TrEMBL record, chain B:
Protein name, as recorded: Branched-chain amino acid ABC transporter permease
Natural source organism: Cryobacterium suzukii
Alphabetical list of InterPro entries matching this protein: ABC_transp_permease (IPR001851), BCAA_transport_permease (IPR052157)
Annotated membrane topology: Multi-pass membrane protein
Keyword Lipoprotein: no
GO biological process: amino acid transport
Subcellular location as annotated: Cell membrane
Length: 248, 289
Protein backbone atom coordinates (compact mmCIF):
# COMPACT_ATOMS: atom_id res chain seq x y z
CA UNK A 1 0.00 0.00 0.00
CA UNK A 2 1.32 3.44 -0.85
CA UNK A 3 1.21 6.06 1.85
CA UNK A 4 -1.51 8.72 1.82
CA UNK A 5 0.86 11.12 3.56
CA UNK A 6 4.60 10.98 3.13
CA UNK A 7 7.15 13.41 4.53
CA UNK A 8 10.73 12.96 3.37
CA UNK A 9 13.85 14.56 4.70
CA UNK A 10 12.10 17.68 5.91
CA UNK A 11 14.24 20.49 7.25
CA UNK A 12 12.97 23.70 8.79
CA UNK A 13 14.61 26.69 10.41
CA UNK A 14 13.32 29.65 12.38
CA UNK A 15 15.69 32.36 11.22
CA UNK A 16 19.11 30.72 11.41
CA UNK A 17 18.16 28.08 13.90
CA UNK A 18 17.36 24.76 12.28
CA UNK A 19 14.78 22.92 14.37
CA UNK A 20 13.93 20.03 12.03
CA UNK A 21 16.97 18.22 10.71
CA UNK A 22 15.68 16.03 7.92
CA UNK A 23 12.55 14.39 9.28
CA UNK A 24 10.72 11.58 7.48
CA UNK A 25 7.46 9.86 8.22
CA UNK A 26 4.53 8.26 6.44
CA UNK A 27 0.95 7.32 7.16
CA UNK A 28 -1.07 4.73 5.26
CA UNK A 29 -4.72 5.18 4.49
CA UNK A 30 -6.87 4.72 7.59
CA UNK A 31 -3.88 4.51 9.84
CA UNK A 32 -3.47 6.31 13.15
CA UNK A 33 0.12 7.40 13.58
CA UNK A 34 1.35 9.18 16.65
CA UNK A 35 4.36 11.42 17.13
CA UNK A 36 5.57 11.77 20.67
CA UNK A 37 8.54 13.67 21.98
CA UNK A 38 9.71 16.20 24.54
CA UNK A 39 8.84 19.90 24.57
CA UNK A 40 10.64 21.78 21.86
CA UNK A 41 11.32 18.64 19.81
CA UNK A 42 9.74 20.22 16.74
CA UNK A 43 6.42 18.38 16.68
CA UNK A 44 4.27 21.46 16.14
CA UNK A 45 6.72 22.84 13.62
CA UNK A 46 6.51 19.61 11.66
CA UNK A 47 2.70 19.67 11.50
CA UNK A 48 2.67 23.36 10.61
CA UNK A 49 5.00 22.77 7.68
CA UNK A 50 2.90 19.87 6.42
CA UNK A 51 -0.21 22.10 6.64
CA UNK A 52 1.79 24.98 5.13
CA UNK A 53 1.25 27.39 7.98
CA UNK A 54 5.03 27.41 7.78
CA UNK A 55 6.70 27.45 4.41
CA UNK A 56 8.17 24.24 3.04
CA UNK A 57 11.75 25.07 2.14
CA UNK A 58 13.62 21.81 2.14
CA UNK A 59 12.32 18.26 1.88
CA UNK A 60 9.19 16.74 0.41
CA UNK A 61 5.61 16.36 1.51
CA UNK A 62 3.24 14.36 -0.65
CA UNK A 63 -0.43 13.56 -0.29
CA UNK A 64 -1.16 10.28 -2.06
CA UNK A 65 0.68 10.51 -5.35
CA UNK A 66 0.70 14.32 -5.36
CA UNK A 67 3.77 16.29 -4.41
CA UNK A 68 2.64 19.35 -2.47
CA UNK A 69 5.73 21.49 -3.12
CA UNK A 70 3.75 24.12 -5.01
CA UNK A 71 0.71 23.99 -2.70
CA UNK A 72 -0.69 26.97 -0.85
CA UNK A 73 -2.21 26.49 2.56
CA UNK A 74 -5.66 26.41 0.98
CA UNK A 75 -4.55 23.83 -1.57
CA UNK A 76 -3.40 21.49 1.19
CA UNK A 77 -6.84 21.73 2.80
CA UNK A 78 -8.53 21.20 -0.56
CA UNK A 79 -6.44 18.10 -1.02
CA UNK A 80 -7.89 16.69 2.15
CA UNK A 81 -5.17 17.41 4.69
CA UNK A 82 -6.28 19.53 7.63
CA UNK A 83 -4.60 20.66 10.85
CA UNK A 84 -6.19 20.78 14.29
CA UNK A 85 -3.63 23.12 15.80
CA UNK A 86 -2.03 23.25 19.20
CA UNK A 87 -4.10 25.33 21.62
CA UNK A 88 -7.36 24.83 19.61
CA UNK A 89 -7.15 28.22 17.87
CA UNK A 90 -10.89 28.60 17.44
CA UNK A 91 -12.28 31.92 16.22
CA UNK A 92 -13.04 33.12 19.73
CA UNK A 93 -15.35 36.05 18.98
CA UNK A 94 -17.37 34.13 16.39
CA UNK A 95 -20.15 31.68 17.18
CA UNK A 96 -19.68 27.93 17.23
CA UNK A 97 -21.78 27.69 14.10
CA UNK A 98 -19.70 30.27 12.23
CA UNK A 99 -16.52 28.50 13.28
CA UNK A 100 -17.86 25.33 11.72
CA UNK A 101 -19.05 27.13 8.59
CA UNK A 102 -15.57 28.56 8.13
CA UNK A 103 -14.09 25.08 8.47
CA UNK A 104 -15.73 24.37 5.12
CA UNK A 105 -14.33 27.50 3.52
CA UNK A 106 -12.34 25.82 0.77
CA UNK A 107 -15.28 23.92 -0.68
CA UNK A 108 -18.07 26.31 -1.50
CA UNK A 109 -20.21 23.67 -3.14
CA UNK A 110 -20.08 21.26 -0.22
CA UNK A 111 -23.31 20.51 1.56
CA UNK A 112 -22.42 22.43 4.69
CA UNK A 113 -25.70 21.66 6.37
CA UNK A 114 -25.16 17.93 6.11
CA UNK A 115 -21.53 18.24 7.20
CA UNK A 116 -22.58 20.24 10.21
CA UNK A 117 -25.11 17.57 11.14
CA UNK A 118 -22.27 15.06 10.93
CA UNK A 119 -20.23 17.15 13.34
CA UNK A 120 -23.20 17.52 15.68
CA UNK A 121 -23.74 13.76 15.66
CA UNK A 122 -20.12 13.30 16.75
CA UNK A 123 -20.25 16.17 19.28
CA UNK A 124 -23.87 16.77 20.37
CA UNK A 125 -22.54 19.32 22.84
CA UNK A 126 -21.62 21.62 19.96
CA UNK A 127 -25.18 21.62 18.71
CA UNK A 128 -26.46 22.78 22.10
CA UNK A 129 -23.87 25.54 22.04
CA UNK A 130 -24.08 26.43 18.37
CA UNK A 131 -25.07 30.07 18.99
CA UNK A 132 -22.50 30.59 21.74
CA UNK A 133 -19.25 32.48 21.12
CA UNK A 134 -16.41 30.03 20.72
CA UNK A 135 -14.21 31.89 23.20
CA UNK A 136 -16.70 31.19 25.98
CA UNK A 137 -16.60 27.42 25.54
CA UNK A 138 -14.75 25.22 28.02
CA UNK A 139 -11.36 23.83 27.00
CA UNK A 140 -12.83 20.46 26.13
CA UNK A 141 -15.62 22.02 24.11
CA UNK A 142 -13.13 24.18 22.25
CA UNK A 143 -11.18 21.07 21.37
CA UNK A 144 -14.37 19.47 20.06
CA UNK A 145 -14.97 22.60 18.02
CA UNK A 146 -11.43 22.58 16.62
CA UNK A 147 -11.92 18.96 15.53
CA UNK A 148 -15.42 19.71 14.26
CA UNK A 149 -14.11 22.62 12.23
CA UNK A 150 -11.54 20.29 10.69
CA UNK A 151 -14.22 17.71 9.85
CA UNK A 152 -16.08 20.41 7.91
CA UNK A 153 -13.33 20.41 5.29
CA UNK A 154 -14.01 16.71 4.55
CA UNK A 155 -10.44 15.63 5.19
CA UNK A 156 -8.75 12.36 4.35
CA UNK A 157 -5.82 13.17 6.61
CA UNK A 158 -6.20 14.95 9.95
CA UNK A 159 -3.17 16.29 11.78
CA UNK A 160 -3.82 16.84 15.47
CA UNK A 161 -1.44 18.78 17.70
CA UNK A 162 -1.82 17.81 21.35
CA UNK A 163 -5.61 17.61 21.49
CA UNK A 164 -5.45 16.39 25.10
CA UNK A 165 -3.55 19.45 26.32
CA UNK A 166 -5.15 20.79 29.47
CA UNK A 167 -8.03 18.34 29.40
CA UNK A 168 -9.21 16.14 32.25
CA UNK A 169 -8.55 12.40 31.73
CA UNK A 170 -12.22 11.78 31.02
CA UNK A 171 -12.33 14.38 28.27
CA UNK A 172 -9.05 13.09 26.86
CA UNK A 173 -10.51 9.60 26.68
CA UNK A 174 -13.58 11.04 24.97
CA UNK A 175 -11.50 12.82 22.32
CA UNK A 176 -9.38 9.71 21.69
CA UNK A 177 -12.53 7.64 21.31
CA UNK A 178 -13.87 10.11 18.76
CA UNK A 179 -10.66 9.91 16.75
CA UNK A 180 -10.96 6.13 16.67
CA UNK A 181 -14.58 6.49 15.57
CA UNK A 182 -13.68 8.90 12.77
CA UNK A 183 -11.16 6.43 11.45
CA UNK A 184 -13.69 3.57 11.54
CA UNK A 185 -16.51 5.57 10.00
CA UNK A 186 -14.77 7.77 7.45
CA UNK A 187 -11.56 5.87 6.86
CA UNK A 188 -9.78 8.97 8.11
CA UNK A 189 -6.00 8.87 8.41
CA UNK A 190 -4.78 10.50 11.60
CA UNK A 191 -1.42 11.91 12.59
CA UNK A 192 -1.56 12.56 16.31
CA UNK A 193 1.04 14.59 18.16
CA UNK A 194 0.73 13.96 21.88
CA UNK A 195 2.42 14.60 25.19
CA UNK A 196 0.09 12.04 26.63
CA UNK A 197 2.06 9.09 25.25
CA UNK A 198 -0.07 6.65 27.15
CA UNK A 199 -3.33 7.63 25.49
CA UNK A 200 -1.66 8.11 22.12
CA UNK A 201 0.07 4.72 22.01
CA UNK A 202 -3.11 3.02 23.11
CA UNK A 203 -5.00 4.45 20.14
CA UNK A 204 -2.30 4.47 17.47
CA UNK A 205 -1.20 1.72 15.08
CA UNK A 206 2.29 3.10 14.74
CA UNK A 207 4.36 5.81 16.28
CA UNK A 208 7.45 7.96 16.05
CA UNK A 209 9.62 9.49 18.70
CA UNK A 210 10.77 12.95 17.64
CA UNK A 211 13.53 14.45 19.70
CA UNK A 212 15.78 17.42 19.06
CA UNK A 213 14.38 17.82 15.56
CA UNK A 214 15.06 14.25 14.42
CA UNK A 215 13.13 10.98 14.44
CA UNK A 216 14.98 8.83 16.92
CA UNK A 217 12.63 5.87 17.06
CA UNK A 218 9.77 4.45 15.06
CA UNK A 219 7.68 1.35 15.04
CA UNK A 220 4.37 -0.23 15.86
CA UNK A 221 2.57 0.98 18.92
CA UNK A 222 3.36 -2.28 20.76
CA UNK A 223 7.01 -1.95 19.94
CA UNK A 224 7.12 1.63 21.24
CA UNK A 225 5.19 0.72 24.36
CA UNK A 226 7.79 -1.94 25.04
CA UNK A 227 10.73 0.35 24.41
CA UNK A 228 12.88 1.08 27.46
CA UNK A 229 13.39 4.81 26.79
CA UNK A 230 9.75 5.38 26.11
CA UNK A 231 8.69 3.41 29.15
CA UNK A 232 11.11 5.31 31.29
CA UNK A 233 10.57 8.83 29.99
CA UNK A 234 7.08 8.93 28.52
CA UNK A 235 5.14 6.18 30.22
CA UNK A 236 6.98 6.26 33.52
CA UNK A 237 5.14 6.50 36.79
CA UNK A 238 7.07 9.59 37.75
CA UNK A 239 5.37 12.52 35.99
CA UNK A 240 8.30 14.90 36.44
CA UNK A 241 10.81 12.56 34.85
CA UNK A 242 13.47 14.42 32.92
CA UNK A 243 12.68 14.10 29.22
CA UNK A 244 16.19 13.15 28.07
CA UNK A 245 16.19 12.66 24.31
CA UNK A 246 16.83 9.10 23.31
CA UNK A 247 19.87 8.52 21.16
CA UNK A 248 20.09 6.17 18.18
CA UNK B 1 -32.12 80.86 15.91
CA UNK B 2 -31.95 77.39 14.40
CA UNK B 3 -34.62 74.90 15.17
CA UNK B 4 -33.90 71.46 16.50
CA UNK B 5 -35.15 70.06 13.22
CA UNK B 6 -32.71 72.17 11.25
CA UNK B 7 -29.91 71.02 13.50
CA UNK B 8 -30.90 67.43 12.81
CA UNK B 9 -31.18 67.94 9.05
CA UNK B 10 -27.79 69.65 8.90
CA UNK B 11 -26.10 66.98 10.98
CA UNK B 12 -27.65 64.07 9.11
CA UNK B 13 -25.72 64.17 5.80
CA UNK B 14 -22.51 65.32 7.53
CA UNK B 15 -22.87 62.47 10.00
CA UNK B 16 -23.46 60.04 7.14
CA UNK B 17 -20.11 61.04 5.64
CA UNK B 18 -18.20 60.79 8.92
CA UNK B 19 -19.92 57.51 9.61
CA UNK B 20 -19.12 56.12 6.18
CA UNK B 21 -15.48 57.09 6.55
CA UNK B 22 -15.52 55.48 9.97
CA UNK B 23 -16.90 52.32 8.40
CA UNK B 24 -14.05 52.44 5.90
CA UNK B 25 -11.60 52.37 8.82
CA UNK B 26 -13.49 49.56 10.50
CA UNK B 27 -13.53 47.31 7.43
CA UNK B 28 -9.76 47.45 7.03
CA UNK B 29 -9.21 47.15 10.75
CA UNK B 30 -11.51 44.16 11.06
CA UNK B 31 -9.49 42.27 8.54
CA UNK B 32 -5.93 43.44 9.16
CA UNK B 33 -5.88 44.96 12.63
CA UNK B 34 -4.26 48.11 11.23
CA UNK B 35 -5.57 51.68 11.09
CA UNK B 36 -5.70 53.15 7.60
CA UNK B 37 -5.27 56.90 7.99
CA UNK B 38 -5.39 57.38 4.24
CA UNK B 39 -9.15 56.76 4.30
CA UNK B 40 -10.00 60.48 4.11
CA UNK B 41 -7.78 61.11 1.11
CA UNK B 42 -9.00 57.98 -0.62
CA UNK B 43 -12.55 59.28 -0.18
CA UNK B 44 -11.41 62.49 -1.89
CA UNK B 45 -10.11 60.36 -4.78
CA UNK B 46 -13.66 59.02 -5.06
CA UNK B 47 -15.07 62.54 -5.10
CA UNK B 48 -12.69 63.62 -7.85
CA UNK B 49 -13.29 60.42 -9.81
CA UNK B 50 -16.95 61.42 -9.78
CA UNK B 51 -16.13 65.00 -10.78
CA UNK B 52 -14.19 63.76 -13.81
CA UNK B 53 -16.81 61.20 -14.76
CA UNK B 54 -19.60 63.77 -14.43
CA UNK B 55 -18.36 65.33 -17.68
CA UNK B 56 -19.71 62.35 -19.60
CA UNK B 57 -22.02 60.51 -17.22
CA UNK B 58 -25.20 61.43 -15.36
CA UNK B 59 -24.63 62.14 -11.63
CA UNK B 60 -25.55 58.64 -10.47
CA UNK B 61 -23.07 57.09 -12.92
CA UNK B 62 -20.43 59.60 -11.91
CA UNK B 63 -20.87 58.70 -8.25
CA UNK B 64 -20.49 55.02 -9.12
CA UNK B 65 -17.26 55.79 -10.97
CA UNK B 66 -16.18 57.67 -7.85
CA UNK B 67 -16.78 54.58 -5.73
CA UNK B 68 -14.83 52.39 -8.12
CA UNK B 69 -11.88 54.78 -8.40
CA UNK B 70 -11.57 55.06 -4.62
CA UNK B 71 -11.79 51.27 -4.33
CA UNK B 72 -9.08 50.80 -6.94
CA UNK B 73 -6.74 53.34 -5.33
CA UNK B 74 -7.33 51.68 -1.97
CA UNK B 75 -6.36 48.28 -3.39
CA UNK B 76 -3.31 49.77 -5.12
CA UNK B 77 -2.29 51.24 -1.80
CA UNK B 78 -2.53 47.80 -0.23
CA UNK B 79 -0.33 46.16 -2.82
CA UNK B 80 2.22 48.97 -3.14
CA UNK B 81 2.55 50.17 0.43
CA UNK B 82 0.95 47.77 2.92
CA UNK B 83 1.54 44.24 1.66
CA UNK B 84 5.30 44.73 1.14
CA UNK B 85 5.52 45.75 4.81
CA UNK B 86 3.62 42.75 6.17
CA UNK B 87 6.68 41.57 8.12
CA UNK B 88 7.20 44.97 9.77
CA UNK B 89 4.09 44.83 11.88
CA UNK B 90 0.91 46.83 12.27
CA UNK B 91 2.50 49.95 13.70
CA UNK B 92 4.75 50.47 10.69
CA UNK B 93 1.88 49.75 8.30
CA UNK B 94 -0.35 52.21 10.12
CA UNK B 95 2.26 54.97 9.99
CA UNK B 96 2.81 54.32 6.29
CA UNK B 97 -0.87 55.03 5.64
CA UNK B 98 -0.28 58.61 6.82
CA UNK B 99 2.40 58.93 4.15
CA UNK B 100 0.14 57.41 1.53
CA UNK B 101 -2.52 59.98 2.42
CA UNK B 102 -0.08 62.80 1.79
CA UNK B 103 1.11 61.23 -1.45
CA UNK B 104 -2.45 60.84 -2.72
CA UNK B 105 -3.26 64.45 -1.81
CA UNK B 106 -0.16 65.74 -3.61
CA UNK B 107 -0.94 63.68 -6.69
CA UNK B 108 -4.49 65.05 -6.79
CA UNK B 109 -3.19 68.57 -6.38
CA UNK B 110 -0.85 68.13 -9.34
CA UNK B 111 -3.75 67.11 -11.53
CA UNK B 112 -6.58 69.28 -10.26
CA UNK B 113 -5.00 72.29 -8.56
CA UNK B 114 -6.63 73.58 -5.39
CA UNK B 115 -9.92 75.01 -6.64
CA UNK B 116 -13.24 73.64 -5.45
CA UNK B 117 -15.13 71.34 -7.82
CA UNK B 118 -18.77 70.41 -8.12
CA UNK B 119 -21.20 68.58 -10.39
CA UNK B 120 -24.95 68.38 -10.82
CA UNK B 121 -27.15 66.71 -8.20
CA UNK B 122 -28.94 63.42 -8.86
CA UNK B 123 -32.34 65.10 -8.48
CA UNK B 124 -32.57 68.74 -9.48
CA UNK B 125 -34.79 71.14 -7.57
CA UNK B 126 -34.88 73.41 -4.54
CA UNK B 127 -34.11 72.24 -1.01
CA UNK B 128 -36.92 70.38 0.69
CA UNK B 129 -38.66 71.67 3.79
CA UNK B 130 -39.36 69.18 6.55
CA UNK B 131 -41.04 70.31 9.77
CA UNK B 132 -39.42 73.70 9.86
CA UNK B 133 -36.01 72.67 8.61
CA UNK B 134 -34.56 72.47 5.10
CA UNK B 135 -32.39 69.85 3.49
CA UNK B 136 -30.88 69.62 0.00
CA UNK B 137 -32.24 66.89 -2.23
CA UNK B 138 -28.70 65.68 -2.77
CA UNK B 139 -28.17 65.45 1.00
CA UNK B 140 -31.08 63.05 1.15
CA UNK B 141 -29.26 60.99 -1.48
CA UNK B 142 -26.12 61.00 0.65
CA UNK B 143 -28.10 59.55 3.54
CA UNK B 144 -29.88 57.02 1.32
CA UNK B 145 -26.61 55.84 -0.20
CA UNK B 146 -25.02 55.54 3.24
CA UNK B 147 -27.92 53.48 4.55
CA UNK B 148 -27.82 51.31 1.43
CA UNK B 149 -24.08 50.77 1.92
CA UNK B 150 -24.74 49.84 5.54
CA UNK B 151 -27.39 47.28 4.60
CA UNK B 152 -25.12 45.80 1.96
CA UNK B 153 -22.16 45.55 4.32
CA UNK B 154 -24.23 44.12 7.17
CA UNK B 155 -25.49 41.44 4.80
CA UNK B 156 -21.99 40.78 3.51
CA UNK B 157 -20.39 40.41 6.94
CA UNK B 158 -23.18 38.48 8.64
CA UNK B 159 -24.61 36.32 5.90
CA UNK B 160 -21.97 35.50 3.31
CA UNK B 161 -19.11 33.03 3.65
CA UNK B 162 -16.61 35.55 2.30
CA UNK B 163 -17.82 38.17 4.78
CA UNK B 164 -17.43 35.76 7.68
CA UNK B 165 -14.00 34.76 6.43
CA UNK B 166 -13.01 38.40 6.38
CA UNK B 167 -13.98 38.84 10.03
CA UNK B 168 -12.25 35.59 10.88
CA UNK B 169 -8.94 36.97 9.62
CA UNK B 170 -8.97 39.70 12.23
CA UNK B 171 -10.09 37.36 14.99
CA UNK B 172 -7.31 34.83 14.39
CA UNK B 173 -5.07 35.09 11.34
CA UNK B 174 -3.32 31.85 12.08
CA UNK B 175 -6.57 29.91 12.28
CA UNK B 176 -7.85 31.67 9.16
CA UNK B 177 -4.87 30.26 7.31
CA UNK B 178 -5.51 26.82 8.78
CA UNK B 179 -9.03 26.65 7.33
CA UNK B 180 -7.69 27.74 3.95
CA UNK B 181 -8.62 31.42 3.88
CA UNK B 182 -6.20 33.34 1.68
CA UNK B 183 -5.19 36.44 3.62
CA UNK B 184 -4.06 38.43 0.58
CA UNK B 185 -7.35 37.86 -1.21
CA UNK B 186 -9.28 38.88 1.91
CA UNK B 187 -7.17 42.01 2.40
CA UNK B 188 -7.77 42.95 -1.23
CA UNK B 189 -11.52 42.65 -0.72
CA UNK B 190 -11.33 44.64 2.52
CA UNK B 191 -9.35 47.49 0.99
CA UNK B 192 -11.61 47.58 -2.07
CA UNK B 193 -14.77 47.74 0.05
CA UNK B 194 -13.27 50.28 2.41
CA UNK B 195 -12.23 52.58 -0.43
CA UNK B 196 -15.53 52.17 -2.25
CA UNK B 197 -17.64 52.99 0.82
CA UNK B 198 -15.61 56.09 1.63
CA UNK B 199 -15.54 57.14 -2.03
CA UNK B 200 -19.20 56.64 -2.86
CA UNK B 201 -20.51 58.69 0.05
CA UNK B 202 -18.12 61.58 -0.38
CA UNK B 203 -18.75 61.59 -4.13
CA UNK B 204 -22.47 61.73 -3.44
CA UNK B 205 -21.92 64.74 -1.22
CA UNK B 206 -20.09 66.81 -3.88
CA UNK B 207 -23.22 68.21 -5.63
CA UNK B 208 -24.68 69.54 -2.37
CA UNK B 209 -21.57 71.53 -1.47
CA UNK B 210 -18.26 71.11 -3.33
CA UNK B 211 -14.97 69.27 -2.94
CA UNK B 212 -11.42 70.51 -2.41
CA UNK B 213 -8.16 68.55 -2.36
CA UNK B 214 -7.48 69.32 1.28
CA UNK B 215 -10.80 67.99 2.58
CA UNK B 216 -9.47 64.50 3.19
CA UNK B 217 -7.43 64.99 6.31
CA UNK B 218 -10.08 66.56 8.54
CA UNK B 219 -12.74 64.21 7.18
CA UNK B 220 -10.46 61.28 7.84
CA UNK B 221 -9.95 62.30 11.44
CA UNK B 222 -13.68 62.64 12.03
CA UNK B 223 -14.16 59.23 10.46
CA UNK B 224 -11.51 57.96 12.83
CA UNK B 225 -13.49 59.26 15.81
CA UNK B 226 -16.62 57.63 14.45
CA UNK B 227 -14.70 54.36 14.16
CA UNK B 228 -13.59 54.68 17.78
CA UNK B 229 -17.21 55.23 18.79
CA UNK B 230 -18.01 52.01 16.95
CA UNK B 231 -15.33 50.22 18.94
CA UNK B 232 -13.41 49.88 15.67
CA UNK B 233 -15.58 46.89 15.04
CA UNK B 234 -19.29 47.62 14.92
CA UNK B 235 -20.41 49.15 11.62
CA UNK B 236 -23.85 50.27 12.82
CA UNK B 237 -22.49 52.00 15.90
CA UNK B 238 -19.81 53.64 13.77
CA UNK B 239 -22.56 55.27 11.71
CA UNK B 240 -24.33 56.38 14.89
CA UNK B 241 -20.98 57.73 16.07
CA UNK B 242 -20.57 59.71 12.86
CA UNK B 243 -23.97 61.27 13.42
CA UNK B 244 -23.12 62.19 17.03
CA UNK B 245 -19.94 63.91 15.87
CA UNK B 246 -21.93 65.87 13.32
CA UNK B 247 -24.41 66.93 16.03
CA UNK B 248 -21.60 68.16 18.29
CA UNK B 249 -20.01 69.95 15.38
CA UNK B 250 -23.27 71.59 14.29
CA UNK B 251 -24.07 72.65 17.84
CA UNK B 252 -20.62 74.13 18.24
CA UNK B 253 -20.98 75.97 14.94
CA UNK B 254 -24.27 77.66 15.90
CA UNK B 255 -23.08 78.45 19.42
CA UNK B 256 -20.66 81.19 20.40
CA UNK B 257 -17.80 78.80 19.56
CA UNK B 258 -18.35 78.94 15.79
CA UNK B 259 -14.67 79.31 14.97
CA UNK B 260 -13.66 76.58 17.34
CA UNK B 261 -15.91 73.81 16.03
CA UNK B 262 -12.99 71.67 14.82
CA UNK B 263 -11.13 72.17 18.09
CA UNK B 264 -14.18 71.06 20.00
CA UNK B 265 -14.57 67.95 17.89
CA UNK B 266 -10.94 66.93 18.29
CA UNK B 267 -10.92 67.68 22.01
CA UNK B 268 -13.86 65.35 22.17
CA UNK B 269 -11.67 62.69 20.58
CA UNK B 270 -9.10 62.96 23.35
CA UNK B 271 -11.67 62.88 26.13
CA UNK B 272 -13.30 59.92 24.46
CA UNK B 273 -10.11 57.92 24.13
CA UNK B 274 -9.52 58.40 27.83
CA UNK B 275 -13.03 57.74 29.09
CA UNK B 276 -14.32 55.14 26.70
CA UNK B 277 -11.70 53.37 24.63
CA UNK B 278 -14.40 50.89 23.69
CA UNK B 279 -16.58 53.62 22.15
CA UNK B 280 -20.32 52.98 22.12
CA UNK B 281 -19.80 49.23 22.24
CA UNK B 282 -20.15 47.39 25.49
CA UNK B 283 -16.61 46.13 25.71
CA UNK B 284 -13.34 46.04 23.88
CA UNK B 285 -13.22 43.27 21.32
CA UNK B 286 -10.64 40.66 22.21
CA UNK B 287 -7.27 41.42 20.71
CA UNK B 288 -6.15 39.44 17.73
CA UNK B 289 -4.04 36.41 18.51
N1 LIG C 1 8.06 31.13 15.94
C1 LIG C 1 9.23 30.61 16.38
N2 LIG C 1 10.36 31.33 16.30
C2 LIG C 1 11.53 30.83 16.72
N3 LIG C 1 11.67 29.62 17.24
C3 LIG C 1 10.58 28.86 17.36
C4 LIG C 1 9.30 29.31 16.94
N4 LIG C 1 8.39 28.34 17.17
C5 LIG C 1 9.08 27.34 17.73
N5 LIG C 1 10.39 27.62 17.84
C6 LIG C 1 11.43 26.74 18.37
O1 LIG C 1 11.47 25.58 17.59
C7 LIG C 1 11.64 24.44 18.39
C8 LIG C 1 10.52 23.45 18.12
O2 LIG C 1 9.30 24.02 18.57
P1 LIG C 1 7.93 23.28 18.44
O3 LIG C 1 6.87 24.19 18.89
O4 LIG C 1 7.81 22.70 17.10
O5 LIG C 1 8.12 22.10 19.51
P2 LIG C 1 7.07 21.04 20.03
O6 LIG C 1 7.68 19.71 19.86
O7 LIG C 1 5.75 21.25 19.42
O8 LIG C 1 7.02 21.39 21.57
P3 LIG C 1 5.77 21.30 22.60
O9 LIG C 1 5.64 19.90 22.99
O10 LIG C 1 6.21 22.16 23.74
O11 LIG C 1 4.57 21.84 21.90
C9 LIG C 1 11.71 24.92 19.80
O12 LIG C 1 13.09 24.98 20.18
C10 LIG C 1 11.13 26.29 19.76
O13 LIG C 1 11.73 27.14 20.71
MG1 LIG D 1 3.96 21.84 20.11
Amino acid sequence: MSAILRVSNLRFSYGRTEVLHGVSLYADEGEIVTIIGPNGAGKSTLLNVVARSHRLRSGEVSLGATDTAAFSQAAVVKHGCVLVPEGRQVFSSLTVRDNLVLGGFTDRRANRKRLMEDVFSVFPRLEERSAQLAGTLSGGEQQMLAIGRAIMSQPTVMLLDEPSLGLAPQMTARIMAVLGELRERNGLTIVLVEQNAHAALELADRGYLLSGGAMVLEGTAEKLRADKTIQHVYLGASPDADPVPATG
Amino acid sequence: METVMQLFLTALPAGAIYGALGVAYVIVHRMTGMVNFAVGDIAVVGAFGAVVASAVLPPIGAILVGAISAGVVSVLMYFLAIHPLRKQGLMVQTIVTLGVGIAVRSALQLVFGTGPYQFAPITAGPAIEIAGGVIYRQSIWVVVITVAAYIGLAYFFNRTLTGKALSACAVNRYAAGIVGINLVVMATIAFALSGAVAGVVLAAQVPSSFITIGAGFALGLKGFIAAILGGFHNIGLTLVGGFLIAIVETLAAVSVFTEHAPTIVFSLLIVLLILRPQGLTRKLVAERV
